[in-house]
């Protein structure tokens, strides 16, 4: 008597195949997330630069109207000082994840420096009354001139 051996054809995926597909999908989604975050961070940093450069213009207008930089800003609080300071300081903080915005005025009211740290980097952007804005490894600190 002859026995018939039937071979069943299995159309299912193996566990290894499923794991490979999940790993590939995870890798692709990671690449997509990273590449969509970079432009957002760049845009936030550009807004910080624009706001600090606008702040520099407002600083000069304040000085022209008042004869001094005194009273323009209050270091890091955004709640006292000129209206321009309050608005621009708050706008900068909304872009840099609520990091400090430093604003220093010398005792004579003749020099001012403002700076903040960029998003996702250790670099700072700094504006002062001596030179135009610049990017660097440090902000104003306690000084009134960008380092």
Would you summarize the structure shown here?
The protein contains 2 helices and 4 strands.
What value does the Rg take, in angstroms?
28 Å
Helix amount, in percent? 40-55%
- Class from secondary-structure proportions: alpha+beta
The strand line-up of the biggest sheet is 1-2-3-4
| Number of H/I helices | 2
Gross morphology is rod-shaped
- Mean pLDDT score, rounded? 88
Largest sheet: 4 strands, antiparallel
H/E order of the elements? HHEEEE
Low-confidence stretches: none
Please give a structural write-up.
The mean pLDDT is about 90. Helices cover about 45% and strands about 15% of the residues. Helix 1 (about 15-65) packs antiparallel against helix 2 (about 85-95). It is an alpha+beta fold and about 150 residues long. The protein has helices spanning about 15-65, 85-95; strands at about 100-105, 110-115, 125-130, 135. A hairpin with a 6-residue loop joins strand 2 and strand 3. Strands 1-2-3-4 form a 4-stranded antiparallel beta sheet, covered by helices on one side. The termini are far apart. The protein has 2 helices and 4 strands. The chain has a domain at about 50-145.
């Amino acid at each position: 008597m002859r026995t018939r051996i039937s071979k069943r054809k299995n159309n299912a995926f193996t566990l290894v195949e499923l794991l490979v597909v999940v790993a590939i999908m995870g890798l692709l989604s990671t690449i997509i997330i990273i590449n969509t975050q970079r432009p957002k961070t760049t845009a936030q940093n550009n807004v910080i630069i624009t706001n600090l450069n606008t702040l520099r213009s407002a600083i000069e207008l304040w000085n022209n109207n008042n004869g001094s930089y005194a009273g323009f800003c209050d270091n890091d609080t955004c709640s006292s000082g000129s209206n321009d300071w309050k608005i621009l300081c708050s706008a900068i903080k909304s872009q840099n994840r609520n990091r400090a915005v430093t604003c220093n005025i010398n005792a004579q009211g003749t020099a001012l420096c403002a700076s903040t740290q960029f998003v996702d980097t250790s670099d700072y952007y700094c504006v002062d009354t001596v030179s135009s804005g610049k990017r660097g490894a440090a902000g104003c600190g306690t000084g009134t001139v960008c380092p």
